[in-house]
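Contributing new records

If you add data, match the layout below exactly. Sequence lines come first and carry their own label; structure lines follow with theirs. Keep one chain per record. Anything else will be rejected by the validation script.
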Amino acid sequence: MSSQLYLLAQKAVYGTPESGGLVSYRFGRAEQFDDPRWLWAGVAVVAALIALFVAWQYRRESASIPPGRSVLLAGLRLIAFAGAMIFFLSPLKRTDQQIVTESRVAVLVDASQSMSVQDEKSTDNQNISRSEAVLHALEEAPFIEQLRKQHDVTVAVFDSELRRVAQWKRHKPDSKTPENQPDASSDQASPDAAEGNVYVNLADSLKPLGAETRLGDALAAVLGDQSGGPLAGVYTFSDGGQNLGVDPLSIADTAKGRKAPVITVGVGSTQPRRNVRIQELIAPSRAFPDDKAVVRAVVQAEGYAGRTFQVELYAREGAAAAVRIGQESATIEAEGEPIAVAFEIEPAAVGRVELEARIVPPEDDQYSEDN
């Protein structure tokens, strides 16, 4: 598995208010003008005209009103006009508060059956499955720790549906954060009340058991999730084996609109899959002594066209060890074409017999659990 990982940074201004705030005062009427200078020029002209009118009026009445009283009345009238102008300007008190929410990164892991193919290499150059390679990246590599320096991190697996299996909060610079590694001895998710983390057994959660791969549906669900902080980005670990659901490329516009980059980490070999397997074993439910019964083993393979393999049939009675009772050859004529190998058996005694077909695989068989 090889890919360059990029760290993402994003901050938000909504969530829970911090203490305090910035208080400012402004005039609401000024916000209705594209250029408030026209407003202030008009206010200045009106104020000057009002002042001149009041001064002219009381100067004209100065003969009948004592000088002290005329000044007092003129001042009161000017104050009344000033109050009316201030009311017109609509004074407002504004308090600004900064509200911060942690950004989050979603990590999506493919849990379909194709992730069980053993075409990855471990550190000691041993073949491991694609799922095991992803598990190593999440548990042993510093990938999660690097993301937690700036974001909350959520891990979810997808096959036919999306399931969240782990969650870690961002490291706080002023607090001691417990180790991010999941508790491998626990089969149940256990919350860390102090940090808001959820630890799980990732080895169990990432088992490749799904029959479908719906990467597009998983991306759509993550991008549509409004819970938590703003989505800073999505990492996807997958072999790219999309077989059902929404086309992942059609989700690209949604991700672009959300400004949440989708970073793909490909796992698996670029070479065609190489696997030979026993697809089915067909046997009659009843057979009689001294009568021959036909048992058929269906063999299927990819990457081995033209190759011949040995198929063995074993029988087990009760708790006894299985005994080989037949061996036939199977030649793979075309990719993925099922080949039926027939065995003739003749029961020797009355009783229940358990049959098992086995194929002798080549050394480069990438998946040994279906042999």
